[in-house]
């Protein structure tokens, strides 16, 4: 150790070397992690007393309820009334409009809107899509379909926080989305089975007919 101006400068050198940009980078990383992936325009809730989801019937088209020129967000559920997973999800999805009153929530029977299911790649139900305007932006892919996981999904995508006083109630188990399985016929599956059986029968008969029409095949069969 020495003394004088040079020694003093050497001793002070380590003190003058903190990496100042680090806190700023960490803060920026936190802000980017919390930044919403979908910038939703929250609707005006003035005058709305009851927040509930709307179930589309067979004659209603989903695209009529989605405004392509708007930035508002809509959560759409594809379900079937005889799917037990859809039934178990129902009370949790019924409570979402109260948790997020500034967003819209729709549900439709995928078996009655097969063209929409094909258009948006719905190969299994329940299937939940987040739309901004008329454009699908995100798909809920978790197998744990509860109110809390749905809240986290919406918050992570939009940055909109859910109301903390909302929970699943007995009214949510009653509707509007049914939580009780409905016995029904899967007409798509039935049609597919009948079509496959008819095709196999046609191919079998057609093959036998062609075989008997080929010269020499009958003689070879007799031998």
From TrEMBL:
Organism phylogeny: Eukaryota, Metazoa, Chordata, Craniata, Vertebrata
Region of interest (Disordered), ranges: 1-34
Domain Thioredoxin per the UniProt entry, residue ranges: 16-159
Protein's GO biological process: cilium assembly
Gene that specifies this protein: Txndc15
Chain coiled-coil ranges: none
Protein name: TXD15 protein
CDD domains for the chain: PDI_a_ERp44_like
Transmembrane residue ranges: 187-205
A GO CC annotation given for this chain: cilium
Key words of the record: Membrane, Transmembrane, Transmembrane helix
InterPro entries noted in UniProt: Thioredoxin-like_sf, Thioredoxin_domain, TXNDC15
């Amino acid at each position: 150790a020495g003394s004088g101006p040079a020694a003093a400068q050497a001793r002070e050198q380590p003190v003058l070397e903190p990496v100042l940009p680090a806190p700023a980078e960490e803060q920026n990383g936190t802000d980017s992690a919390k930044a919403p992936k979908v910038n939703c325009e929250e609707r005006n809730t003035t005058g709305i007393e009851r927040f509930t989801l709307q179930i589309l019937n067979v004659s209603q088209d989903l695209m009529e309820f989605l405004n392509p020129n708007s930035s508002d967000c809509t959560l759409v559920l594809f379900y079937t009334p005889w799917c037990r997973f859809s039934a178990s999800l129902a009370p949790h999805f019924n409570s979402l409009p109260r948790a997020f009153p500034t967003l819209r929530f729709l549900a439709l029977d995928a078996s009655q809107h097969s063209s929409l299911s094909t258009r948006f790649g719905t190969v299994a139900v329940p299937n939940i899509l987040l739309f901004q305007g008329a454009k699908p932006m995100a798909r809920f892919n978790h197998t744990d379909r509860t109110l809390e996981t749905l809240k986290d999904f919406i918050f992570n995508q939009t940055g909109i926080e859910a109301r903390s006083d909302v929970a699943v109630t007995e009214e949510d188990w009653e509707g509007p989305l049914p939580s009780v399985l409905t016995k029904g016929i899967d007409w798509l599956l039935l049609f597919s089975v009948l079509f496959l059986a008819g095709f196999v029968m046609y191919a079998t008969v057609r093959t036998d007919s062609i075989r008997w029409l080929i010269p020499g095949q009958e003689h070879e069969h007799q031998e």
